[in-house]
Design brief:
GO terms for molecular function: ATP binding; metal ion binding; pantothenate kinase activity. Homodimer. This is Type III pantothenate kinase. The structure is a single chain. This protein has about 260 residues and is an alpha/beta fold. The chain has two domains: about 90 residues, ATPase, nucleotide binding domain (Nucleotidyltransferase, domain 5), CATH 3.30.420.40; about 150 residues, Nucleotidyltransferase, domain 5, CATH 3.30.420.40. It is built from seven helices and eleven strands. The strands form two sheets. The protein has a six-stranded mixed sheet with strand order 6-9-8-7-10-11. The chain has a five-stranded mixed sheet with strand order 3-2-1-4-5, sandwiched between helices. The protein starts with a strand and ends with a helix.
């Protein structure tokens, strides 16, 4: 059994994979203060919840955009499961080319998303990841990442509103019932939702204008669930895309 770990700025998401099948997934908050023992115990508890034991873990692959968490998390994997995890980063085989000014600047999560999307759906395609930040990466027909765009995520936008304004509260990120809001909370929810949705659709249109050819739009990330049924601009929403990409990367690199 392979554990795929996506360490993001807000959450750490785990996927338990048997072959290409995702048996279970779990989410925990990313905290720099957690020790390796704490991470190891949480992993063991998630395994038990899925009727696995620590000894069932054959290998681990990690994608991380939070370097300060890596030492504790990697140490937990080694201590609790006896394996040195594969880490997605420079030098790893992916089957994807990166034609950016600085290829190392591409987040490991975006790279895994693109590998999964291209492997499953072919190219050309635009890969969207709705997380703490919202990212767009264009993959051409040959499997080369040729452009990327990064903007604020919907949760980050909501946090900015409540943190920078004295009278606006924190609100749940949700699909509003109507744009006709009658109180502060629903006004914020509707504003965040429709502004975010409109921005996504307009950005996709701009990619279409500049690319000059049709492409598939594949989306992933937790906040994609909020809008994927509200727009015709997204062809596929795959919440487990990163795990599928990590499985493909693992298979290209495994020699142990």
């Amino acid at each position: 059994m392979l554990i795929a770990v996506d360490i993001g700025n807000t959450d750490i998401v785990l996927g338990f994979l048997e072959g290409t099948k995702i048996i279970a997934s779990y989410r925990m908050t990313t905290l720099l203060s957690h020790t390796s023992d704490e991470y190891g115990l949480m992993l063991s508890e998630f395994l038990q919840m899925s009727n696995y034991a620590d000894s069932d873990v054959d290998d681990v692959i990690i994608s991380s955009v939070v370097p300060n968490v890596m030492h504790s998390f990697r140490a937990a994997i080694i201590k609790f499961f006896g394996v040195d995890p594969i880490v997605v980063g420079p030098g790893i085989k992916t089957g994807i080319n990166i034609r950016l000014d600085d290829p190392r600047s591409l987040g490991a999560d975006c790279l895994c998303d693109c590998v999964g999307a291209f492997g499953l759906y072919g190219g050309p395609l635009l890969v969207l990841d709705f997380g703490t930040a919202t990212t767009y990466n264009y993959v051409d027909a040959k499997g080369t990442i040729t452009a990327g765009l990064i903007t604020v995520g919907i949760r980050s936008g909501a946090a900015a509103l409540s943190n920078k304004t004295a009278q606006l509260p924190e609100v749940e990120i949700t699909r509003p019932k109507s744009v006709f809001a009658t109180d502060t909370k629903t006004a914020m929810q509707a504003g965040l939702f429709y502004n975010f949705l409109g921005g996504v659709e307009r950005t996709i249109v701009q990619f279409q204008r500049e690319v000059g050819e049709s492409f598939k739009v594949v989306a992933t990330g937790g906040f994609g669930r909020i809008i994927e049924g509200e727009t015709d601009s997204i062809d596929v929403y795959d919440p487990n895309l990163i795990f599928k990409g990590m499985r493909m990367i693992y298979d290209k690199n495994i020699s142990r």
